[in-house]
Write a structure and sequence with these properties.
Elements lengths: L4 H5 L8 H17 L4 H7 L4 H9 L18 H14 L1 H21 L2 H12 L5 E4 L16 E5 L2 E12 L6 E7 L10 E7 L5 E6 L10 E12 L3 E2 L5 H37 L1 E2 L2 E2 L4 H30 L8 H29 L9 H9 L9 H13 L3
Parallel strand pairs: 1-4
Antiparallel strand pairs: 2-3, 3-7, 4-5, 5-8, 6-7, 9-10
Bound molecules: flavin-adenine dinucleotide (FAD).
């Protein structure tokens, strides 16, 4: 079985440092041992391995981008992204849930939360004792999440009273804290007047609805959330009231570029599996790898992968060096969307070709390549679909970013 480590030994071609290469090599060995064997059961039984999450946290793989005083590792976004890629190579589903907690919630609280919120949530989250989810999408508010948002919060004394619902929320059924976007004003225009609240899931009025049955990423629990007169302390407001759109846009940029690694890792794995299969499978008396049409597929898969990968590394490097106020607008907004667009496009292309190379065996549900194929499609939909990403890129270019 390939380990992927060789990929990182050659990481110098991307200008990775010795330290980054070493971090990835170490992570790859660990994730291969601890996470790879869980894949099949997670997919078959839609099972979330809670203990493994704690174990990985205990080994220092949560809070990758936040400082050690809050329990994190203090890594830059590129290095954290490399860890994500490595995890997604061995177990994309685990990486999906991990990223939602590590980046969408932990990193967000660190960047936007008060000192009291940082101290209250971050160390426990970095130990894996609390898991985070992000609640933005609603039944009637998908691509137009801000403009169509109905979930609202009214301030009463030292609480916000939240009413509404969210849908398709990764980690929703298992989360301890949901960074929830709510409407707090209707007087500021349809995409403004939004606030970000840390809703602790043991608060009265919060309820998890259905756990949703997905075609891929099975094992990463996705659910509906309901807020019925849910009392959230005003101390749980993240950033300023009615300024949640800024937090959402900056968070989405980082989510997009980190999520691009959820495309790159599995695509690398699919290419490795396809090469192995092509070398082993014989038809017409010789390995199918000897046929030029199969070679052509493998070459195109590699080129698509490396093109996307190089671009994503570059954008992660830009994010690593950016100032907080640069996220969610301008050049980074455009780059993050472009990076995820390209990575998702490469990912679905590579999965399709990898299944083709596997022939009938690739169509069987219990094969690894089939699982990767089913999993990858959502990367063209979530965190702003391919269409929305194109709109952002075009709009950025037309504005001269
Ligand atoms: C597995 C999974 C996990 C998810 N996890 C989370 C999560 O943790 N938190 C969260 O908040 N959300 C989450 N989502 C929701 C995800 O972000 C939304 O599905 C996504 O934003 C698209 O919204 P929608 O599904 O309502 O599609 P719609 O907005 O209804 O879009 C349907 C189609 O119309 C296209 N479209 C829409 N507007 C335009 C336009 N202006 N121009 C051209 N085409 C357009 C879209 O691109 C798409 O192809 C998750 C979704 C899935 C499937």
């Amino acid at each position: 079985m390939r380990t992927g480590i060789g990929e990182y030994r050659s990481g110098k071609q991307f200008g990775l440092t010795e330290e980054q290469i070493e971090i990835c090599a170490h992570a790859s060995e660990l994730f291969k041992e601890k996470l790879y064997p869980l894949q099949q059961k997670m997919d078959d039984e839609d099972w979330w391995p809670e203990e493994a999450f704690r174990e990985i946290a205990g080994m220092g793989y949560l809070g990758t981008t936040i400082p050690p005083e809050y329990g994190g590792q203090g890594l830059d976004y590129l290095t954290a992204g490399l860890i994500c890629e490595t995890m997604a190579y061995w177990n994309p589903t685990f990486a999906f849930s991990w990223l939602n907690s590590d980046n969408l919630v932990i990193d967000n609280i660190y960047r936007n939360g008060t000192e009291e919120q940082r101290e209250r949530f971050l160390p426990a989250m970095c130990r894996g004792e609390m898991i985070g989810a992000l609640g933005m999408t609603e039944p009637g508010a998908g691509s137009d999440a801000l403009g169509s948002m109905k979930t609202n919060a009214v301030k009463e004394g030292d609480s916000y009273i939240v009413n509404g619902s969210k849908i398709y929320i990764t980690n929703g059924p298992i989360a301890d804290v949901v960074l929830t976007y709510v409407r707090t004003s209707r007087d500021m225009g349809r995409s403004k007047g939004i606030s970000a609240l840390l809703v602790e899931t043991d608060q009265p009025g919060f309820r998890v609805g259905r756990k949703l049955d997905k075609m891929g990423f099975r094992g990463s629990p996705t659910g509906e959330l309901f807020y019925d007169d849910c009392h959230v302390p005003t101390a749980n407001l993240v950033g300023e009231e009615n300024q949640g759109h800024i937090i959402m846009h900056s968070g989405l940029d980082l989510e997009r570029v980190m999520s691009a690694m959820l495309c790159i890792g599995p695509a690398r794995r699919a290419l490795d599996l396809a090469i192995d299969h092509a070398n082993l499978r014989e038809q017409f008396g010789r390995p199918i790898a000897s046929f030029q049409m199969i070679q052509s597929k493998i070459a195109e898969m590699y080129i698509a992968l490396e093109t996307a990968r190089t671009f994503v590394y570059r954008v992660l490097d830009v994010c690593s060096k950016a100032q907080e106020e640069e996220y969610g607008r301008g050049h980074i907004h455009m780059l993050a969307s472009a990076a995820l667009f390209q990575a998702a496009k490469a990912g679905t292309f590579i999965m399709d070709e990898a299944v083709q190379i596997h022939g009938g065996s690739g169509y069987m549900r219990d094969t690894e390549i089939n699982r990767l194929y089913r999993t990858t499609k959502v990367m063209e939909i979530g965190a702003g679909s391919q269409e929305i990403r194109r709109i952002i890129v075009a709009s950025g270019l037309l504005k001269g970013h």
